[in-house]
Amino acid sequence: MIKMAKINKIFKILKILIIFLIPLTLTGCFNYRDINKVTFATSMIFDTDDLGQVIVYLDCIKPYRSTNESSDKGRRLIFKGVGKTTEDALGKIDNFSSAKLNYSQVKAYIFTEKAAKEGIKKYLDLINNYGEMQIKPSAFIYYGDVEELLKATSGDDEFLGMYLNDIMNKKPFNSLSLQANINYYLSNRLMGDNTLLLPAVNLKKDVLDKKVQINGSGILKDNVLVDRLEQEDTLLYELMMGSVYEGTFEIGNPNIDTGFISLDVLSSSEDSMLRFDNNRFTLVKNIEVDLEISDIQGEAIVDSEFINYIKVNEEAYINSYITQLFNKYKEKGIDIFNVYRMKEIHYGKEEINDPLSICDLEINTKVNINGTGLSQNAL
Fold first, then answer.
1. Residue 83 in contact with residue 53, Cβ under 8 Å?
2. Do 260 and 123 belong together in one domain?
């Protein structure tokens, strides 16, 4: 078992090195001797201290090829720099490193809650203007202590940026994954009322240790963190704003007081329209979602009557929940629904500074249920 674990660890490191080295060999910029002189950043964490100084953490891999061995190897390095500006902090890290720092393989940009509340524009400007930094990776808001985050991914074969990148790649088509892309953020931050979402990251206590998880989203207005979309609201928000291909709903089993029916999301679609009548806007959302019965606690005959019960109740639940979610953020004056942007597109001539405040929601949900036959589980 120990030998197999060692083999798996070596395989992971080789996989990481291949990901980094193939693009470089294709461009012809590096040879094996050069690789020994380069350290690749896999993620960047932006933080700030109580004195207003910028703190930058780099999670890096230093690949090397030994002259005495035939295999490629890599070592994980963590750098921390503190300065008056982001450039100053990175410059100090560069002074610490014995190898050239390369930012072309960064897989995630992470802003701490504190840094995001003070504003992320200066970090975005650096990413956008620094030639070596890519705008393809996703960005995240981290809620928690940075040192604890780095400890949670402390092994030589565990890289925070690659882990987060893998999570986002598992669900590339939902609305929040699309918004997480730095290029999307930079392209859309000046549209509408400048409100965008980035995935929220925190640590979850596991049986043996702490694990990194995506948990809701941070809401930014004018590049400043102003609120948080909780995890329990995320699925309904995604249904409202775009396509969803995974997720689970639960509904009570009518045949047993304590039993539940689990419904997996297969796919969804939405169509939006903004109406303007009598000096008020109405945001119309037509949602269609395909659900599959994945589990039934207790016993039930899954016939047309049972299917209709689930369909009617789930449609009512989705309509009610999304309406509450809309009203919640409407009262806060936070436009996570793109009302302002839709007003610009369709009613640009109307001189209304705050369309969200005079906007109502009309939501129409159609649920399609898959699942037939007799399902029975132990109570």
1. yes
2. no
Euclidean distance between the first and final Cα of the chain, in Å? Answer: 38
Distance of CA 251 to the CA centre of its chain: 27
Q: Which residues contact 71 (CB under 8 A, 6 or more apart)?
A: 14
The reply to whether 104 and 165 lie within a common domain is yes
Residue partners of 299: CB distance under 8 A and separation at least 6? 255, 256, 374, 375, 376, 377
Find residue 19's DSSP bridge partners. none
| Helix locations, 249-338, DSSP H | 304-332
Quick one: what percent of the chain has pLDDT higher than 70? 81
Q: Do 191 and 113 fall into the same domain? A: yes
Structure tokens at 193: 């009322």
Alpha carbon 70 to chain centroid, angstroms: 39
pTM over 0.90: no
Answer left, alpha or beta for residue 303, where phi above 0 means left and psi between -120 and 50 means alpha: beta
What's the chain's length in residues? Answer: 379
> Mean pLDDT score of the chain, rounded to an integer?
84
